[in-house]
Amino acid sequence: MASLAPVSPGESAVGDHEARSVSLWFRLLSCHALMLAELRRELEDRITLARFDLLASLHREDGQTLAALSRALLVTAGNLTGLVDRAERDGVVERRPDPNDRRLARVWLTSRGRALIRDLLPAHGRLVHELLRGLPARERRDLRNLLGGLRQHLREKPERPEKSEKSEKSEKRTKRKTA
Known about the structure:
Layout: H1 16-43, H2 49-60, E1 64-65, H3 66-73, H4 77-89, E2 93-97, E3 105-109, H5 111-132, H6 137-155, H7 165-178
Antiparallel strand pairs: 1-3, 2-3
Helix pairs in contact: 1-5, 2-5
């Protein structure tokens, strides 16, 4: 394993492999932020990006539970509740009880929400294509495949180095508090 201590002034404090991985991570974050900024600018007159994501997720699979939407949108349950409350108030979604489990509510697009997302999706698709058009088609395909492989790897929860004793104690305290 590469040493984490710099060997000479100005040299990275992490090993070469780790430095390249961190650089890749920053590039992914940077590209994500730049694309989100463009999408926000494009949509800002009509809808927030958060609401667009909610409606698009329901367009793909209507009637999701709040927990499923939270996972799909990568937001906390608290943030999602507020987002759904506002969307419901504005008449673009509605909550309905789950017919098989009274404890659950499912979120459905209303006809107004369905019409809105159908109207927005073509412009969204064109903008995303425009943003990625700087890469030749083959590179876009390769990037899609590479990111798909990375996503699969991350979903498989790769083994991580042993936790320090301090983090294990902190985790145990958290579990006791929530029990």
